Amino acid sequence: MPRSWTRLHEHLGVPPGPLTFDMVKKAAEDHLAESDDLDWKEQLPQPPRDGRWNELGKDVAAMANTRGGLLIYGVTDQDTEPVGIDPDQVNTQQYAQWIRNHVQPYLPDVTFTVLPAADGAMSFLVIDVPASPMAPHHVYGTAAKDKDQQASVVPYRDRDHTAWMAEHQIERAYRDRFTRAQHAQKETDRLFAHALENVLTEHAEPSAWFIAVARPERPLPRTAEPLTREAAGYLCTAANTSSQALARTPHVVGPLGALESVSNPRPGLRRWSSAPCIRAWAGGSMRSCTTTAAWSWPPTCPGRPCVAPRPILTRRASWSTRTSSAPPAATPSLSPASSPAAWAWTAPSP
Description:
By secondary structure, the protein is of the alpha+beta class.
């Protein structure tokens, strides 16, 4: 899923949401200059010839190695004139294969979107490249005279053009990758401890709690506006609806079913949180969309029978999460990201 906040959103002053044909056309007509996260392209990607580097692979890797960005095809890069592309010539499967074959490590979240005009007279191709936590990414190619000899380079965006990393820059990029991984684990552990402290202090009697912590590896850009109460309320309501859907039966209490005021979160210290109660707790960061949720067992089911969940042993793990539901246009949507997470059960007191 493409990102919901880009340089085009910032330039046009529009709220977070999907890119449209009119947004791209208006930004081009405004002569929005290229930058490290925006690259205008007149012609569609071409295959490498005569041993040259794969141009698409180079451009994608450069964006991923910097801070992510957009490659927009159908706009001249000299005077940003919208000229459009032929949508019938777009081959996203071929483009994805070039990236798989020429860029390492693998970039899984690159998206390709064709934006046609309402009357079909013109179209743009937008390639959205997120900033990669696995940077630096190398681009591999072969020499024209020696097909068996492979070489690699590490491109990056320097203002409005692509440059090549020197050896000391590559070394620093690897150190940054390992530091990010270490920091992500420490931050996840901190959020887990914070959630554990909140839920256990609210419930003195013996109980079991399920705690989930998610922290996106690609937070919102600094230029993005903080999460509003309405947007936070929408996310809480959507999470509660999905939570109840997981139960598959109205006789089972969903993981967030006991949250009070789930659609009206209150502000906290750099976060939105629903009112803590005895049975559940949840909170989220105003900027980085960090979310924390907890569920106690046995649940409270006033006036109806309950099906209690089966106890699980204490565990800690990591997995990738994705958000498939999109909020209304006026509220920010979450971009897919690999998020470290952890869960645990606290055993009842003897």
